[in-house]
Write a structure and sequence with these properties.
5% of the residues lie in helices and 34% in strands. The protein is mainly beta.
Length: 442
């Protein structure tokens, strides 16, 4: 108790900027104590890398609209990354920063990371990772956790050493990995997401190659585990390196829990010769609900003893989507996916999507009548006309629209058929530099 009180008394806010007490982020981190907050002014911090001396630290942008940029122009001498979180350190929160250019020699692994996580608990919100060998690389303390929200992983893994990915949770020591409201795209050779975590929650993201990306799998879960993949836009580009599948599950694992749940994802295969959208090995249970498959390929190839599929839909052409070529994967008017889904049983209530991806995060999803197949719903927020015995009570119920949006989300609460265009996916990297949410995790 005395130690806790002492830490609370000592907690301070350290400020970083050209005219602040610290001009480099690394100097503030090294001067900090557990419980401190470091606020970083917008600007460029060149070759400003640091190995944290401890956990229990928050580093965030001082601006609600701009991200400070930590840019690397040479091999990082710590041989790991721009931010290195040591073994057993946690919790660490990184909010509103941009990591660019992390690299180390191939002889040291060739996997320099924007953030190298070796601690116990990491939360990343509203950050950008671009042109690093690996965006975020995690693996270390027993039962560590990683949560990533409203962030962008843009064209990392460009050198093709064979060890790089946009994001890699690289150890089955991981107890829980949550990836929600993010965009991960344009990896050259590795995966858009690779996780060996025992429990994976991947929801409401855009994951894809776009036109030029050459990633292997879009999602690779080699250790299997308990994995929920819900409400994502999952695209394989025409230049993708791997021709066998888009999601690979369980290829390297004898994990005691091998359950894969996929619901309300929109898959788009822009590579003609991919034989399977999803391939599983060793799964004890595969549950699929209301996934939309666009393009050629078998939706599922599995050696699972228990496969439970309802409501999936596959179409060859792109007529289901608003604009497939512009990566606008909302449902077009008259799409066969509208109201074509199956209601999801209470047993699998975790598979009911409550959000849908938009640029910078997610927004509430509404379905009218039967659920729509895929990652988007065509519907409006239900209105509460009041109790039947009080006809005068007609004030609309704003419901979930009054609850806070996902932390760091700069989204609106408009219904799913609002003009929140996904055409802007192509501009994610550039726009992310200009936009930041004013809200931060607490």
């Amino acid at each position: 108790m005395l130690l806790l009180l002492a830490a609370q008394v000592h907690a301070a806010t350290l400020q970083v900027g050209p005219d602040k007490a610290y001009t480099r982020v690394s100097d503030a981190v090294l001067a900090s104590s557990p419980g401190d907050v470091i606020e970083v002014d917008p600007g460029e911090y060149v070759d400003d890398w640091v190995a944290f001396p401890h956990g229990d630290l928050e580093i965030r942008s001082s601006s609600p609209s701009e991200r400070p940029v930590l840019r690397v122009t040479q091999d990082i001498p710590n041989r790991k990354g721009i931010f290195v979180i040591p073994v057993d350190a946690g919790p660490v929160l990184i909010d509103g920063l941009h990591f660019e250019g992390a690299r180390i020699p191939e002889s040291d692994g060739g996997n320099g990371a924007g953030i190298r996580m070796q601690g116990s608990e990491l939360t990343v919100n509203d950050c950008v990772f671009t042109q690093n060998q690996t965006g975020l690389l995690a693996g270390g303390t027993q039962d560590f956790t990683v949560t990533v929200t409203n962030s962008t992983f843009d064209h990392n893994a460009q050198q093709s050493y064979g060890y790089e990915h946009n994001i890699y949770i690289g150890s089955d020591q991981c107890a829980a990995f949550v990836f929600e409201g993010n965009a991960s795209f344009g990896a050259k050779s590795g995966h858009q997401i690779k996780s060996r975590c025992r429990n994976n929650t991947i929801r409401y993201n855009f994951l894809g190659d776009l036109a030029e990306g050459q990633a292997s799998y879009t999602i690779d879960l080699p250790e299997g585990g308990y994995s929920e993949v819900v409400g994502n836009l999952i695209q394989q580009g025409p230049k993708a390196e791997n021709s066998s599948t888009i999601i690979s599950y369980g290829a390297e694992s004898d994990n005691p829990e091998m359950v894969l749940l996929l619901a309300h994802n929109t898959f788009v295969n822009d590579r003609d010769n991919t034989p399977a959208f999803v391939r599983t090995k060793g799964a004890t249970q595969v549950v699929m609900r209301n996934n939309l498959f666009i393009g050629t390929g078998t939706p599922l190839e599995s050696d699972s003893g228990e496969i439970d599929r309802l409501g999936d839909l596959q179409v060859e052409a792109g007529s289901e989507l608003m604009d497939r070529l512009a990566y606008d994967y909302r449902l077009a008017s008259g799409a066969t996916a509208i109201n074509a889904g199956s209601p999801i049983e209470a047993t699998f209530s975790a598979l009911v999507p409550t959000q849908q991806y938009i640029l910078g995060g997610s927004e509430p999803r509404w379905d009218d009548d039967a659920p729509d197949v895929g990652a988007y719903g065509i519907g409006e927020e239900p209105q509460d006309t009041g109790p039947e015995n009080n006809p005068a009570d007609t004030e609309p119920d704003t419901g979930d629209l009054l609850t806070p949006a996902p932390e760091g989300c700069s989204c609106t609460s408009s219904p799913s058929n609002s003009p929140a265009s996904l055409i802007a996916v192509l501009l994610l990297g550039a726009l992310a530099l200009l936009r930041r949410s004013s809200s931060r995790p607490t």
